[in-house]
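hiii so my PI (J.) wants the whole complex modelled not just the main chain, which honestly fair. so below is everything: two entries, each one labled with what it is. i double checked the lines twice but i was tired so who knows lol
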Amino acid sequence: MASLIARYPRLQSLLIVVIAAATIILALPLLGLTITDVFSIAIILIVVLALNFMAGYAGIPNFGMALFVYIGAFALAGVGTRVALALVELTSPGFIELLRSSYPLILGDSSSFEVFVRVAGDPMVNRIVTRKVESVIEASSILSLTLTLAVFGFAIIAGALTGVLASLAAVRLREDYLAIVLLAFSELMVSVVFDQTDALAGGPNGAWVVRPWPRVGALEGLAGLLGTIPDVLISLAVGLAVLAACFIYVERMANSPMGRMLRAMRDDDLTIRVYGRDVAVTRLKVMAIGAAMASIAGAIYATVYIQVKAADTYDRVTWTFVPWAMMILGGMANNWGAVLGGIIVYLGRKAIYYYAPAIASVISPILGVEASIAGDILRAQLPNILVGVLIILVLYLRPQGIIPEKPSKTLSRREIEAIT
Amino acid sequence: MKALDEVSLEVPRGRVTLLIGPNGSGKTTLINVISGVLRPDGGTIIFEGLDITRLSSHERSKLGIVRSFQIPRLFQNLSVMENAIVGRDGNPGESVARSLFKRLWVEFEKKAFLDALGKLEFVGLKGLSERRPGELSGGQMKLLEISRTLMPMNPKLVLTDEPVAGVNPVLAHEILAFIKNVAVEFGVTFLIVEHRLDVAVEYADYAYAMHLGKVIAEGEPRKVLEDPKVIESYLGM
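here's the output for the full assembly
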């Protein structure tokens, strides 16, 4: 195939057109995309932009994205619920005592400290207490705003620190070692530490979160006009705003001397060292920023998908390998490419899900399986299989992706003409 | 067998010092040790009175030690212009926060751009400034690396590993003359490894010859070339 393309260069553009057309046709039934689809696209695009910043520009092969996204979700599931309970207990003392007397069988013997541990650590307590706390928090603008700030503040700081911590040991090593360390660290933290420790955020059962959106000022006015604003709309608005902010940040950075230096570091870290750049410190800074971005995405995601299960919801396929496929398809070290690749892969996966029963009804007689079973298997496995195939195909046929990397545009044509 | 064995040499400030020797004599290893790419097992490296033996390569670079590589190490996905301009250190736009505000770095960037353009023009690569290094010939890659080596803000010691290998004779003379001129005008010190002795000897102030990891001769370049030990080492006797 590669030699065919070498012989007929136009074949490559033709291939792109065919893929694009197929994607659009496949995505047609999805024109009725739901709000949660748009929300999910916004969240995954933040993760892809963060990954592109770390891997595409700075050359840090981050195979541990899932961990950084989960840290943001943990900010709600493991920290937010407890902060919310503390806020309620502080403003209306006796709340915990009231809980104890209301649920003597479950909470009767627990000390206040144990209630704090169990509110996110014990599925039953979590289930009961979360909604009660949420109703108190929702009624107060100050409480809900405080919770929002606490949760997102934690997500940003903990995300950045985890990014630094995860790469600290390997930041001076070659990129391949860094990739292995990041993958191993992420797996260890998500699948072992968080998923197997109930006290952190419910272990394998996960934890329900207290939705943190403030009901303040303008929102209350709007709610008055519209009757009520569903939480998902607030989450969508916040998701889109954060996506826009992240895009502006990475795009500005990419077209500054910083972007150029990162690309140089990615191409040859020894040479950039010889030219006075501290590679280890730069990598740590990039990890901190990229991980914080992914973590914010995880926090916003958990405001809609409010049951947070570590290894189950924040798995490596969805949050590490799918973003990699999106970035590789769109074009590494190109933010527009990352966005385009993200949308195409999301819609493609959605289309497979949509068409799975139809495909199943065709192939099930051939395979001798029942159509409904074949449909279920296809829905579960085909999107992931195709992500794997897509990564291989793009790397083989068009390694630069749909929109290739471009020089960092530090000076505009006009600025260059003016000085030369 | 030691790559470098009891090597002791002094490179005088503001002069062009030539380092010669047959293949495998330890010249590149010495450059690697001075620039911090390799750590020596023993001995000390003193730069302007400061012991730099334990400093990392980027710390040495900040003191003004720059180098080029025997096989050009260019940034393959950066344009020719970007490859040159990235040699300029201290750009305020290379900070994670300041990079967002163009007015904080645009003046520095314009100056660096003009400087890089001048260097590229000198080596005849101005017309190719938007190409990628992969599109250049071997000699042009060498020239691009030389231009980049001359880009740092305040170079004090420039270590160049075969700067004119693969470059046509006329340009080879021009490059070495330029190096000599930079040394004389700006007091920059050069340590040059070069096999093209016929060309290099004209521009060097002092020379060291190495063989099997040891310095076997030093002094006025032409005298070093005529030293029987040096001739023997080249003839493999």
